[in-house]
Please model this.
Amino acid sequence: MSYDQVLSAYPRDGLELRLIERFTSLRNKRVLEIGCGDGRLTLQYAPVASSVLAFDPDRASIEEAAWQQADRGIDNVDFRVGSIEQLADRGARFDVALFSWSL
Amino acid sequence: MVHALQRAGRRLSPGGMLISLRPHRRWRPTVAITAPGYRLPIARLVNPAFEGNLRSADSALDRVVDEGWFTAAGTRSSRYRIFLQRPSQMRTYLELINPPRPRFPPGGRARLFALWNSAPPGARIEVTEYLVITVLRRR
Model:
């Protein structure tokens, strides 16, 4: 058992994406993600998405997400500190809105 | 939550998908001691405050469908398991979860420690978590 497995309360990589893909593909989609946390899920699907705008209110989590993004060379994700309340009513449209473990 | 769903809906293209991934409201996490050919259920974790949040989320998803923002595209449940090497790791595991955190029911933690002492060699602690995905389509 790896250290990471012990220290995560979330599913292993891939499970959530397999569930999502039963309904829709994220390939080439413009994705809005609410509650992205440290980007754990975001950075799994970002390589196939067209673009991602991802919010989380926790600054430390967003900083971790941005670090992970840079480390993996992924450049199509805009991580922002905040909530969906910061999203203007008007603007570019998204194909998918993902509420990931956020209630 | 309704407001957040509506706000997301305003920025979705017609036919766009809203996806909610969240813990399952009725199937709460369970803890068991396992080894090859051996599985001993210990407890179902409880979290009354969080269960209220989950009820609210379910209600909000129903409401935006009822109000005509979205049509229901489907829902599906799944589960996953986390394995711990010893009871002391339960505390670490629970502390990883954002508050309000689940806890053992009365006597549950003591039962885990007591039964761990008689578990077969190579036993592990298995935490089974359940999740649900709900997908709505923007009208």
User: Anything to note?
Assistant: Chain B touches chain A through 41 residues (CB under 8 Å).
